[in-house]
Amino acid sequence: MNAPEGYKKIRVHLVFAVKHGGRHKARLVADGHLTRNTTEGAYSGVVSLRSLCIVMFLSDLNTLKLWGADIGNAYLEAYTEEKIFIVAGPEFGDRKGHILIISKALYGLRTSGARWHDRLFDVMRDMGFSPSKNDPDIWMRLSENSEVYEYIAVYVDDLAIVAIDPAKICQILKDKFKFKLKGDGPLEYHLGCGYWRDPDGTLVADPKKYIEKMMGWYEQEFGEKPRKFKTPLEPGDHPEIDESPECSEENQSRYLTMIGQLQWLVALGRFDIFCATMTMSKFRPAPKEGHMSRLKRMYGYVLEKRIAAIRFRTTEPYYNDVEIPQHDWMRTVYGNVKEIIPEDAPEPKGKPVITTSYVDANLYHDIVTGKAVTAVLHLLNQTPIDWYSKKQNTVETATFGSEFSAARTATDQIVDLRNTLRYLGVPVRERSYLFGDNKSVVTNATIPTSVLSKRHHALSYHRVREAVASGFLLFQWIDGKNNPADILSKHWTFVSVFPMLKSLLLWRGETKDIKDAPTVSNKDKAN
């Protein structure tokens, strides 16, 4: 039997799996590697976890319902544009030997992800949703009462729906578009994170189930549970000077898996291990036995603090007692500078939001390269929403330079966060608050007459000062012992960060109700 003109012959195979609930599954998968490479985008989009976190925050802020849904066999809802066929084998019965042209976007084909993306794009447009200009995998539309926006966050075929009536949206997807939805209902589990509410009704994002899977993998690989620790790494540890032997090939493979698991846990909200994970990620190409021991310690810390979770506290923080400096910037190089507000952002709807950020730098974090670490923690109202810990690109010789570089990074991120919110139709308060623990940097950035003495800091100096001069950024000093960015910048002692960890990841209720931290035992201090 002759092949159709212009079509290419490929093969298919079956993949069998047992799902976590014990359900057995089989899927027909195409051998897409036999087809030609494509120059077009070949993947379906995924929402950034920061955008997903913001959307969940907005569900509670504007008293909307939060639902989840999984579109079953999503790729098969779309049609492929590739010209391919298979020859039927004996499993096709009477059709054995027939040429079968593939019309559906089978899993395994190079462009199936893109075809599913196109299909979902058309469906969302038909339902009145438009992609956010800041994150195209956040779909939004004005609610029927025109008071708030409704959102659908898309991660390939997993949907997080924030709406007045998400059940109606799911029903339309089923009835009109014939999607096979699984697990549609109030969001309980999404992308490795569980969702539930505290007794006071506060929404909680809890990665406990993912941690259980991590610990199950660890016990299977090493034959025991990890020993518990109070901190991810030893305070002041420098794994870059470890001189132990290199890991075996088996442990090198385990090391890569462990780093990947820890990185995903950071993305799910466990920013308390971010600095340690960032530090240990450097050694993935050739880890040493000492590096593996440190990862085991980090697993022990995660097991010890497995109850830590992000709580979506939507009450605006009280800043009425924060003094706002009255400076005249007109006679500086910045003149009458104003914040640049995007003109194509949608009309703001719903309750307003205040952004608060904390910044810190750890000079000489890496004693081999001499590089410092920049750490930034962002909050929407009282909810941690984004976190950052990364080595700086340049080597600084003094704390002032590293702290100013960190302040510039924080300023850029604040601008991005404010515009992200605007493109989601969120009313943003006029002023964002940035807190740092270096008085010299804060003074240099906020006093018009302050002069820069080291010219190689000029870009950071002017970037931060222009934001302050424009009025949208209030940069204030905070005592280092109260700066939660310390959690992201260094290897800390438990006693030094526990009051902040308690308020951000462990405490139930409003952060304003937190009293002084309980006394920490000598045993805890030692760990």
What does this entry look like structurally?
By secondary structure, the chain is of the alpha+beta class. Helix content is 31%, strand content 20%. It contains 13 helices and 20 strands. It has helices spanning 49-61, 112-126, 166-175, 208-222, 249-267, 274-281, 289-304, 399-423, 439-446, 458-470, 486-489, 494-506, 522-526, and strands spanning 8-9, 12-18, 24-30, 65-71, 84-87, 99-101, 130-131, 138-142, 149-155, 158-163, 181-186, 189-190, 193-197, 203-206, 310-312, 355-362, 373-380, 383-391, 432-436, 473-477. A 6-stranded antiparallel β-sheet has the order 7-8-9-10-4-11, with helices on both faces. Helix 4 runs antiparallel to helix 5 (249-267), helix 5 packs antiparallel against helix 6 and helix 8 packs across helix 10 (458-470). The protein is globular and about 85 Å long.
In the sheet with the most strands, the strands line up as 7-8-9-10-4-11
The total of helices stands at: 13
Uncertain runs are: 512-527
Structural class: alpha+beta
Helical content band: 25-40%
Give a short account of the largest sheet: 6 strands, antiparallel
Strand content: 15-25%
Overall shape: it is: globular
Averaging pLDDT over every residue, what do you get?
93
Described by its quaternary structure, the protein is single chain
Radius of gyration: 26 Å
Number of strands: 20
Please report the distance between the alpha carbons of the first and last residues: 73 Å
